[in-house]
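Support request, please re-run this one:
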Amino acid sequence: MPSDSQLVAERRSRKILEPLFLLRLKRGIQTTSRLSLCLPDLGQPGRHRDRGRAESRPIIHPPMSKSDSTSTPLAKKDATYRAGRDYQATDKGMIWWKPNGSGERVLTQLTDFNAWMVARFLMDDGQETTSAVRIEGVYEKKPFSILIPVKEFALMNWPIEHVDPRATVCVNYRERAREAIQRLSRKLELHHMYRHTGWREIDGEQVYLHAGGGIGKNGAVKVEVQLSYALRNYILPDPRRRRDVVQAVRASMKMLDIAPDRITFPVFATIWRAPIGNVSLSDWLSGLTGAQKSQEAALAQQHWGAKMDADHLPTNFATTPNANEALAFEAKDALMVVDDFVPMGSAADIQRMHRDADRLFRAQGNQAGKGRMNADTSLRPSKPPRGLLLGTGEDVPGGQSLRARLVVVEFSPGDIDLDKLTNCQQDAAEGKYAMAMAGYVKWLAPRINKVEKALQQAISAYRKISRTIGNHRRTPDNMANLMQGFQFWLSFATHVKAINPKQRAELWERACKAFDELITLQSSQQHTTSPTQQFMALIASAFTSGRAHLASQSGGPPPTSRAAFGWRREDGDPKRKWIPQGQKIGWVKDEQNIFLDPSGSFAVAQSLGKESGQFIPLAIGTLQRRLKQANMLASTDEARQTVTIRRTLEGTNRSVLHISLRTLFPLENPTNPTNSSLTTSTAFHEQSLEPDNSPTNPTNLSDQDKDQVSTSQSLNNLLSGLSGFPKGTPPQVKNGSREHKTSLSGRKSKPDKNVGFVSEKAALQYQTAAERRAERLRNI
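Re-run finished. Output below.
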């Protein structure tokens, strides 16, 4: 063992040599000092042999190795001179000066890499804030920089995944390695990083976030945003140059001419409604393969990034439902296309795809996310979709409730002008569409709060006066959202002088006609997807396919229309007797009255529905109540307060559903569809699109449909008045009747005092309120 005098002399010599050694290392000068000592062999930690000395002794301080005289220094942010009392970073990795029982410190290797923390990040997704750290270091003379969650850092598994699979933390020294990194790290920079797109208030200013930063009222804002890989292309340019924005808006307008207005205007309005936020509707583009629906969706998506063409859309239905929900939460105040809904495979596979689509788009419609819990059973904030979804597919997810949450746009082959589409795709790829969106959010930034408030007021007003438009209460909200989005775009385009007042009026008129046609199509789609209509259609199909039949009250063939009720001639010979087909599910009294066995008819309908993919999503009791609510039952038992009635059939008293022949076969008497408010609703909308010489005949309308005629004109005027855009002719009261418009497009029909229009006083009150709202919006 060396004497005390030898140790003192050695320490003194090191105090002189160490600063020179570090200075040489920092400046990249190789050291060949004969006093340099080797790091200990990992097989014998804490011990080494000096050159020319036989005995061994503990290492008191880590020197530079003579064997490393040809090694290069570390990166610019070098950890070699980062040293504490217990830990030190060297070019061989991090070491620990481990105290032993005799009061000395023994050198112990912890890792074969160096690492230190340089910054802390608050990861903000709008619901939760988590922490992450940026770690820099060197492994095998190569620098690295990674960003990992704090929880992952503490586990010390990250070197293998993020640095190199060979990066080693010595056995039983994970906690020491973690402490060494913390001890060797200096003061950390604090960063606020956002994990979503859309609006956030930063330093008292509304900023629209995207993958490349943010956009405020004065243009680009420097802010840190980290999005998921699927959303990495959500990048908007800096809209500081007004000329670029004007050219981009005019290029974006060309989208309106590549297909019929019934297709382009709903999609175009969706683009400009999305950045305003707080939207519960979704768009759906449906059509045969090759109809260019994905290309149309890609043009809409490229308003958020030039790279998101049809081959690089954010997500599709092959992605797991959880992943799509997470992306929909992250894409706040933005459009996100979910592409390629094509149910294929077995019946179970088809049902699964419909279930996954239903889950995502129903969450969007309800603005509700999946509930989650922490490991300690405490509840975590839900993460609902916060943008606007645009789905594409050859089919539409089933169910009346879900379809009411969708604005379905049908494509047919030949609808898209391919030459115009190519020109639009070139503009989008050049970034003009993204520049148009950047200019739009810059225009919204100083007024977004007022715009959101005005939008909610407008939707509330639509909801009050248009309760009977469509078959579902969500339809007026959906139409109002899209039309308001288009109106806000008109204000922006006029503000930047991309269009003049005449063009603005023409575009608004085209939009009214397009949305009028869209309302008609929506009503038709909801009519066919109603569970009650499904039930009746499946029962009729069961008769046609030989799955079921109806008998007379005595059990024999029906008195009339035997073939329509599931009976066939024996061997197809018209001279032979009638043979019933399938299961008996009811009885025919006469040409107008049918009695259905509740359980038997429901079982047959469900069985046929499962085979054809039209499963009725209701229990038998719920379906019966829905039939009553839809006025599809000819009579009910009010005394017993049941939807079934008691009748003696084939000598037995039975509980049956009483329906009329016109309810089961509505096409046999289409001139008087009084049993289905859905049919009269569709008929009304079809009439509203006829020329002036086809007036509405009030004698064929129910009271509800007469109210619907009135509210349609009110909606037209309100849509114009609320936002200060070209207004239609206001209600005019003349000689006890009022001239009116039966459609949003402004087509007039003859006045009729029998239709329940509002009074002169109510009309004036409505007009005054609309003018006040228009004035408020013009002041935004």
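DSSP finds 22 helices and 29 strands in the chain. The longest helix spans residues 501-528.
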